[in-house]
Write a structure and sequence with these properties.
The protein has 872 residues and is an alpha/beta fold. Helices cover 49% and strands 8% of the residues. The chain has 30 helices and 15 strands.
Length: 872
């Protein structure tokens, strides 16, 4: 009984633990190895006859085991049938104990419901069969693929073997072996080729830079021309020749202690040095430098001969805007040989540099390795040295250029100590005396105006009030408005009377119609700051009322150096835009829109559209005369007439810049009566041919202009035309040699004319008011001609025009011209120095300078003071 109770208590403590029967030790075969739970192992009570040290004793499970096994396990032999749940076993044990049974009775075997098991077995068999089928299929496919790959491999191997065999046969041939041995030895020698020394690089650097300086200087000179009866000794002829002038430019270092050659050497040598240190390839940098500087020298030479000025930084914007192809149209026929020869020389030069690059064993000018910059101390030092050298060279070049035109700056002091004397008002003289490279670099950084004394918001407000009162005074006697009429401003390219040039005369008049117009309407001579060029500068003055005389001498082209950098720019066409509360101003130019950045500048000025040869849409009329390369003036006028006929009755401002008489003058016209009518004296044949071609072009302009005005007379809306030539062509070499002719070569023709419908028809201002003018006064003069009201700004220009009829800044070597400062003319056309002007004139000039500074370079205080608005 005691044993039975002990067994009962043990069974109760295990709850669902099945009974065990001790058997003899059995092998593992035929059974399963089942882990026991932790409770079964150590913490739960076990039968008293279970001995832990009998590790080999096995127990057979008589029923289904429901306990979890975590750490230990027992072996369960296979049985034929599943056992009953533990609850049934436990009940059986309890019954036996109750009947005082001393023997442990095994669990009774019971029958289970096998229907579910049969379904499960069938599903398992189906899955197993499907898996076997899939496995067989995959195995077959894999076997097929393997066979295919194996066959392909054998084919490739066979082909490779054949190729190898053929290659070995070819390589083993005697001829090929000889070639291989030759190149092997050559390669060994090639690997041992010497590295060019830095001393050799220095020699090449010095020779090439010196050659480029001399070539640039050579391009700036021209052979002198002498009259047939002039007696010049041979020594003088040699010294005044191009070779003599170039020799003097170099030798003056020793003869006169003037080091302009050295200054130019430094200027372009720094560019060469930057290329070398940035690219780190000496010969590649040499090719780029040589081609670039030689091309620059050729272009500079051509421009010096055509327009009497060197290449300027402002010219680069023309090239950068995609007009490099158009430059070829400006190359004269007599310069084609120079261009062709230069191309040949550069081709040979490039081949030589490539050969040196191949022969030179030194690839990098400064040893460095970008792939493994830190692999060794040598690579680290080389890489850092290259970076530092490149940065320092760029910084040095930038500092040199930016300070070259600033008095007191280090590069300016260096340049002046070497003999540099800037002549910014005459870039031709500056380039020939100081060198084209120095002239170019000195104009890179430009400050439009120095801040005038007394510039402040308070003073600008005072000026605005003063000229507002002046405008009210003027307007009290005027009855019309500028915007009552359509105003057409015509810049006639290079138009002037050739018979006014000393030494030039014809037996027939090339401009009889325009001469008659000038006699019957407001007209006179315009002081032009340009000779042979500078169209955009005169145009800028006429559209804005600003004068180049008030700007710094370093400001060469406002269209390219000033306007693009302004947030807003005032121009007179905006008067018409304000009147119509829209855009009532348009522009035409029978050439390309990007010249002088007109396209972007006109947008800033507020023009509705700008029609050119490459605009969208393009100009409709593009007719040429005979062999001329430019659109005729008649076609240009017709584009304007078409627009006037299509537009509404709203008044417009129309800007037209023509191209017919633009250089070169290469005998375009078939029937040129001026060849026989030319009775000029003391000019050579080349000059005569250009003058005759130009005179014929002026004749065509004269006829087209009178026809244009006649058609405007038929319009039933008031129209006023402001017509002017921007500058004289640079073809009067003989006259230009005489300094007394400088003023004449800077005076072109202008007139202001109104059609029959206009109230100002047949109006002609007094000679004192119109005989002499400059383009910045044109709108103010037109307002006076039209009896139209003015703004405070136009009132200032009106008053200034009365006191200083004409003003400008142009090239001259005569000290009386102010050494490049502004030139002023009085009412009879004679030059007057600023100190000799009246007190009122000097005050007006001071106010004008303040206004121009405020509107172009200052804080634009006047913008909010209605300074440019015309009060109603």
């Amino acid at each position: 009984m005691k044993d039975a109770m002990m067994l009962f208590s043990q069974l109760n403590s295990h709850d669902c633990v099945p009974s065990y029967v001790k058997h003899a030790k059995q092998p593992f075969a035929g059974g399963t190895y089942r882990p026991l739970s932790n409770n079964e192992g150590t913490h739960a009570p076990v039968p008293s006859n279970f001995k832990a040290h009998h590790s080999s004793t096995l127990y057979t499970q008589k029923s289904t085991i429901h306990t979890d096994s975590n750490s230990t396990s027992i072996f369960i032999s296979n049985v034929s049938a599943l056992l009953r749940p533990a609850e049934t076993a436990t009940a059986t044990i309890v019954n036996k104990v109750a009947n005082n049974s001393d023997q442990i009775v095994p669990f009774p075997e019971t029958q289970l419901d096998h229907s579910t098991d049969r379904i499960s077995n069938q599903a398992v068999k189906a899955c197993k069969k499907a898996a076997q089928t899939a496995a067989k299929t995959l195995f077959a496919a894999g076997h097929t693929i393997a066979d295919t790959v194996q066959k392909a491999g054998r084919t490739v191997h066979s082909a490779t073997g054949t190729i190898k065999k053929a290659w070995y046969t070819f390589v083993d041939s005697r001829a090929i072996q000889l070639i291989i041995k030759f190149f092997s030895k050559a390669h060994a020698l090639w690997k041992k080729r010497m590295k060019f020394s830095y001393a050799f690089y220095t020699v090449v650097f010095a020779l090439l830079t010196s050659a480029e300086v001399i070539f640039l200087q050579w391009g700036g000179y021209s052979e002198p021309e002498y009259a047939e009866d002039t007696e010049i000794d041979q020594t003088t002829r040699i010294l005044q020749s191009v070779a003599g002038q170039v020799t003097k430019f170099v030798s003056q270092m020793w003869l006169e202690q003037k080091y302009q050659f050295l200054l130019n050497f430094i200027g372009i040598g720094l560019i060469y040095l930057v290329l070398i240190l940035v690219l780190n390839r000496f010969w590649i940098a040499t090719v780029i430098f040589g081609i670039a500087m030689t091309s620059y020298g050729v272009a500079n030479s051509i421009k010096m001969r055509l327009r009497n000025e060197p290449i300027l930084p402002s010219d680069l914007s023309f090239i950068l805007n995609g007009n490099s192809g158009s430059l070829l149209s400006f190359i004269p026929k007599d310069q084609q040989t120079l261009v062709s020869g230069t191309i040949t020389v550069l081709a040979w030069f490039s081949c030589i540099c490539v050969l040196f690059f191949i022969l030179d064993g030194r690839r990098c000018f400064i040893h460095c390795s970008w792939k493994q910059p830190f692999s060794s101390a040598k690579n680290v030092a080389g890489t850092l040295t290259r970076i530092i050298a490149a940065v320092l060279s760029i910084a040095l070049l930038a500092s040199y250029i930016c300070n070259l035109n600033i008095p007191g700056a280090w590069s300016y002091v260096l340049a002046t100590n070497l003999g540099y004397k800037p002549v910014p008002w005459n870039t031709y003289e500056d380039a020939t005396s100081n060198g084209p490279a120095t002239t170019f670099e000195s104009l890179v950084r430009i400050k439009a105006m120095e801040k005038p004394g007394g510039y402040s918001q308070k003073n600008m407000e005072s000026i605005a009030q003063r000229y507002a009162k002046e405008a009210d005074s003027i307007n009290s006697s005027r009855t019309n408005n500028l915007t009552d009429s359509t105003v057409i401003m015509i810049l006639s390219e290079s138009f002037s009377d050739p018979t006014r040039v000393p030494g030039v005369s014809f037996s027939i008049d090339p401009m009889p119609n325009i001469r008659g117009i000038k006699d019957s309407t407001t007209s006179g001579l315009m002081l032009s700051p340009g000779y042979g060029g500078g169209t955009a500068n005169i145009e800028y003055q006429s559209l804005t009322g600003m004068s180049l005389a008030s700007f710094n001498d370093q400001l060469i082209s406002p269209y390219q150096q000033l306007v693009p950098n302004m947030k807003s720019a005032y121009s007179f066409n905006q008067i018409w835009n304000e009147a119509c509360h829209s855009t009532c101003s348009v522009a035409y130019h029978p050439y390309y829109k990007s010249f002088y950045l007109r396209d972007s500048n006109y947008k800033k000025f507020g023009f509705k559209f700008f029609r050119t040869l490459d605009s969208s849409p393009i100009i409709s009329h593009q007719d040429h005369i005979d062999n001329s390369i430019y659109v005729s003036d008649a076609a240009s006028y017709q584009n304007v007439l078409d627009y006037l006929q299509q537009s509404t009755d709203q008044s417009q401002f129309i800007q037209l810049v023509t191209m017919q008489n633009h250089l070169p003058y290469s005998d375009w016209y078939v029937d040129n009566e001026f060849k026989d009518a030319d009775i000029s004296s003391d000019i050579n044949d080349a000059e005569r041919q250009q003058i005759d071609t130009y005179a014929k072009g002026i004749s065509y302009t004269d006829s087209a202009t009178i026809n244009f005005l006649n058609q405007l007379n038929e319009l039933q809306k008031p129209t006023t035309v402001i017509f002017y030539g921007d500058h004289l062509p640079g073809i009067y070499q003989t006259a230009a040699m005489e300094e007394r002719n400088q003023l004449t070569l800077h005076e072109s023709d202008y007139f202001i004319w109104s059609n029959a419908t206009s109230p100002s028809s047949e109006t002609k201002l007094s000679p004192e008011e119109s005989n002499y003018s400059s383009s910045n006064y044109f709108i103010a003069s037109a307002a006076e001609h039209m009896n139209a009201k003015v703004s405070p700004f136009l009132a200032l220009l009106t008053e200034l025009h009365e006191e200083v009829p004409s003003m400008g800044r142009f090239a001259s070597t005569n000290d009386s011209w102010g050494s490049g400062s502004a030139t002023y003319l009085n009412s009879d056309g004679s030059i007057v120095k600023k100190k000799n002007l009246s007190q009122k004139a000097r005050q007006l000039l001071k106010d004008y300078s303040l206004v121009q500074y405020d509107m172009t370079s200052g804080k634009n205080y006047l913008q909010n003071l209605n300074f440019t608005q015309i009060s109603e």
